[in-house]
Design goal:
Number of helices: 16
Number of strands: 13
Shape: globular
Structural class: alpha/beta
Strand content: 5-15%
Order of helices and strands: HEHHHEHHEHEHHEEHHHEEHEHEHEEEH
Strand order of the largest sheet: 1-2-3-4-5-7-10-11
Distance between the termini: 40 Å
Bound molecules: beta-D-fucopyranose
Oligomer: single chain
Length: 476
């Protein structure tokens, strides 16, 4: 064999994965407005526009003003989705673009952009899954989710957007990851709006969930034909050791990361908290039962984002992490422990596909018949992708990641699998494009498509071509 013919390490076979995909299973890509649209000055400002303009907030000093310039290049991006053979596209409506002050009528220019984008999707027969809130609160709603009024404003926004785009959206997602907004944005201060309230951030849980419930009611009142759901991020939580202290803190983390966001939506109540932890949850203790009725609306589907499991130990941590999370957590009675037995993404996140199955199994065990059909609304990984001298981008880690996670999901929900009984309907890869990764700026590339952030040129990576082959080989 000449060196040219030495086989490269084996790539997961697209045909083999294609045969595991059930007929009708939806596969698409996901994005968020603040991460790709740019043109942040075109209409109202979001809290992320302001936050990213503050020195020291974003790791590489970048901001939201251009990102991927999807605002001008949406047609090219939809054409890429079409080449990929994607069934669906999960995007978010930018609240401040559509309703610059968070109040009153929708802005015509904002409407026009989404009209054009939705037309483009329709022309390529790509099904729109629209998120109403992916973290870009209008900056004019100053107290943000600390203020109960923001829930009411969000309900009004949902009503206006529902009425305007009723016939064009196949699936509506009220909120994206309220857990990340509360924890990173209001408790730890590493995301907008940068509050460091620790457990005093808990009112933002209730207000976001109330906003969700009001948005569902508003969409139903607008008679939208599309299905309605919410997206939560779930991370299976385990204690670092068998000690009762670690077990108690793992339970606490599971409550604040997973259960406090899912239980009220699906069961109509906040999770029971052990007596010794109850004082931490004072802010939720008095939740009005009428609010809980509003929050617990019948849903057509549940969106689950999965990235990684979490390991928790009792006691304050030492406060050293590349993204500042550990430093921000030093005031808490627990810390996160590295999970060393798995390979890691560029972000340092453990790659543990089988725990996607665990997350699905926990949903079934916790919510039973209250769990509607599930879509995995985000899953993906950042790697330090490099452009080869011939212009190609070879990202075998991402191919292996996507293959392993899709297989883990199918195995889990198969008869006799760990999550047998979960009605899994679809999967969205995060993300279509390399994009602006919040506080990590442009340092983490999650895309199937490479973006040169100087020229904004898009180049499909090897993972894009691999997924294209998977989608083309599916049985319909
Ligand atoms: C999720 C977010 C998404 C993206 C991925 C990597 O938590 O919903 O916007 O940042 O992580």
């Amino acid at each position: 064999m000449s060196p040219d013919t030495v086989p490269s390490p084996k790539k997961p076979d697209p045909n083999s994965l294609a045969h595991s995909i059930p007929p009708g299973f939806v596969i698409g890509t996901a994005t968020a407005a603040a991460q790709i649209e740019g043109a942040s000055t075109a209409a109202g400002r979001s809290v992320w526009d302001d936050f990213s303009a503050q020195p020291g907030r974003i790791i590489d000093g970048s901001d939201t003003s251009v990102t991927c310039d999807h605002y001008s290049r949406y047609a090219e991006d939809v054409a890429l989705m079409s080449t990929l053979g994607a069934d669906a596209y999960r995007f978010s409506f930018a609240w401040p673009r559509l309703q610059p002050s968070g109040l009153g009528a929708l802005d015509p220019a904002g409407i026009d952009f989404y009209d054009r984008m939705l037309d483009e999707l329709a022309e390529h027969a790509i099904s729109p899954f629209a998120t109403l809130y992916h973290w870009d609160t209008p900056a004019e709603l100053e107290a943000g989710w600390l203020d109960r009024d923001t829930a009411l404003r969000f309900g009004e926004f949902a009503s206006l957007v529902g009425e305007r785009f009723a016939d064009r959206v196949d699936a509506w997602i009220t909120l994206n990851e309220p857990a990340t907004v509360t924890l990173n944005g209001y408790a730890l201060g590493i995301h907008a709006p940068g509050e460091t309230l620790l457990f005093d951030a808990l009112p933002t849980v209730h207000h976001q969930l109330l906003g969700h419930g009001l948005a569902v009611q508003a969409l139903r009142a607008a008679s939208v034909p599309g299905r309605i759901g919410i997206t939560n991020v779930h991370s299976p939580v385990r204690a670092a050791t068998d000690s009762p202290e670690d077990a108690a803190m793992a339970q606490l983390f599971d409550i604040v990361h997973n259960r406090v966001f899912a239980d009220p939506v699906l069961l109509g109540s906040y999770p029971d908290v052990p007596d010794e932890l109850a004082p931490l949850f004072g802010a939720l203790g008095g939740a009005d039962s009428r609010d809980l009725d509003t929050i617990c609306q019948p849903l057509d589907f549940y969106g689950l984002n999965y990235y990684m499991p979490t390991r928790v130990a009792a006691g304050a941590g030492t406060g050293a992490s590349p993204d500042g999370t550990a430093e921000a957590m030093t005031g808490l009675p627990f810390h996160l422990v590295d999970i060393d037995e798995y390979p890691r993404t560029g972000f340092g996140w453990p790659i543990a596909p089988k725990h996607l199955g665990t997350a699905l199994a926990e949903m079934r065990d916790r919510y039973g018949a209250a769990l509607p059909p599930v879509y995995i609304t985000e899953n993906g990984a950042s790697f330090a992708d490099e452009v080869a001298p011939n212009g190609t981008i070879n990202d075998p880690e991402r191919i292996a990641y996507l293959d392993a996670h899709l297989r883990a999901a199918f195995d889990a929900v198969a008869p006799g699998g760990a999550a047998d009984g979960v009605d899994l309907r679809g999967y969205f890869a995060w993300s279509l494009l390399d994009n602006w990764e919040w506080a990590a700026g442009f340092t983490q590339r999650f895309g199937l498509v490479h973006v040169d952030f100087d020229t904004l040129e898009r180049t499909p990576k090897a993972s894009f071509e691999w997924l294209r082959q998977v989608l083309a080989a599916r049985q319909r």
